[in-house]
Design brief:
By secondary structure, this protein is of the alpha+beta class. It has two domains: 193 residues, no CATH class; 112 residues, Sandwich (Immunoglobulin-like), CATH 2.60.40. The protein is built from nine helices and eight strands. A hairpin with a 5-residue loop joins strand 7 and strand 8. Helix 1 runs antiparallel to helix 2, helix 1 crosses helix 8 and helix 7 crosses helix 8. It is rod-shaped, with a radius of gyration of 54 Å.
Length: 394
């Protein structure tokens, strides 16, 4: 990593030197039309010098254009058309000045007089700007590409190819000029490539940048895969932990239920010992509870029945009865279970020392259960041996 960072400034030095050479070549090419004024009054080529100045100061010009767009509320396309027409006027004025100084009776203008020429230039250069807008909407051009296309059209198309015809005629009559022309074409090609580099389209730099971006992309992809693997592992771990927590919660609930059962068993045996030792009551009802069950109108009851010392008398044989006090449609009523529709066998009792009793009964879902009384009858008797009541909350 340190070696790559140390080699970066060394790799930048040729680029900085090359860009400095391009700057110098661009400035020198812009100075040539100005030096040409020393040999003749040709001011038309000064448009290229103005182009070089505009290229060198493009950042301030871009800020000026943005300010004009905001202040005048113009669309970028409108400002482009106005700029093309303005540069066309500047070209026509320089061409007219060159013809005026040279006293040329047939100037290369749209009209021999300046004012009509500028009026006609609005239509010519305005159409040229609209053609460029349509072309740029369909294709993309660099600054160097626009420069070359404009130059080719000026040499081969403008005034029916007068410039190229004159160049060919001079080259055929003067071999030295033909050599200079070939050199000029090569220089133009070099200037085109230099313009591309100056505008930021150096192929080698772009290729290096693309390679660097590919390497960075591959590194980013690798980091992404690594982070995804870590995230997937973390998700799996969290899933396992959540499953373990659910299982642990189930185990805790099961242990709590077992603990409650053990406490209940302990209380049962304590009560048995207490009853055996005192022999106070032959039958005892404890922990009688009634609560709503899952279905509407259904209630579940639980109780614990304890007997005294029945070693001489054997098992307790009997039955159980529930008396439920309900309120329905504003009237109070009593319901006795088991009724005629219930299975009486579920209410029969047979045990020696203790017995857990659990079951359900159903009433009208619209009825409100107020009280429930349990009655225990021993076989062969009509009088309850034990009773206990509970009141349900509102």
């Amino acid at each position: 990593m340190e070696s790559s960072e140390a080699s970066a400034p060394v790799a930048r030095r040729p680029r900085v030197w090359r860009r400095g050479c391009l700057w110098a070549a661009l400035v020198a090419s812009g100075a040539l039309p100005i030096l040409g004024l020393l040999t003749g009054p040709n001011t038309t080529l000064l448009i290229y010098s103005i182009f070089v100045v505009a290229l060198l100061t493009r950042r301030p010009l871009e800020r000026l254009a943005d300010a004009l767009l905001r202040r005048l509320r113009l669309a970028p396309e409108a400002l482009f058309v106005i700029s093309v027409i303005g540069s066309g006027w500047l070209t026509e004025c320089l061409a007219w000045l060159s013809s005026y100084i040279d006293h040329n009776p047939q100037p290369a203008l749209l009209h021999p007089q300046l004012i009509p020429d500028l009026i006609l230039a609005v239509g010519f250069y305005g159409g040229w700007a609209l053609a460029w807008l349509g072309t740029l909407w369909r294709w993309r051009f660099t600054l160097a590409g626009v420069f070359v296309v404009t130059g080719v059209l000026g040499v081969f198309v403008e005034q029916s190819g007068a410039v190229i015809r004159e160049i060919v005629a001079v080259a055929l009559t003067n071999p030295l000029l033909a050599v200079l022309l070939a050199f000029s074409v090569a220089l133009a090609a070099w200037m085109y490539d230099a313009g591309r580099r100056f505008a930021g389209f150096d192929r080698s730099e772009v290729q290096d940048e693309m390679n660097s971006m590919r390497s960075e992309l591959e590194r980013t992809h690798g980091e992404l895969h690594r982070l995804r693997a870590i995230a997937n592992a973390a998700d799996s771990k969290m899933s396992i932990e959540r499953t373990a927590q659910v299982r642990l919660a189930q185990q805790i609930r099961s242990l709590e239920q077992d603990n409650a059962r053990l406490r209940e068993d302990l209380a049962i045996f304590e009560n048995l010992l207490s009853v055996d030792s005192r022999s106070v009551q032959a039958l005892n009802i404890q922990r009688f509870k009634v609560e709503p069950d899952g279905l509407p109108g259904e209630y579940r009851y639980r109780m614990l029945l304890l007997t005294g010392n029945r070693r001489e008398r054997g098992e307790f044989q009997g039955r159980m009865e529930l008396v439920v006090g309900v309120q329905l449609d504003g009237r109070n009523a009593m319901m006795i279970f088991p009724d005629k529709t219930a299975d009486a066998s579920t209410f029969k009792l047979s045990f020696r020392n203790f017995n857990r009793v659990e079951g359900t009964f159903r009433v009208d879902p619209k009825a409100k259960v107020n009280t429930v009384q349990v009655r225990i009858f021993e076989a062969g008797t009509a009088q309850a041996k034990a009773t206990q009541s509970v009141t349900l909350g509102s």
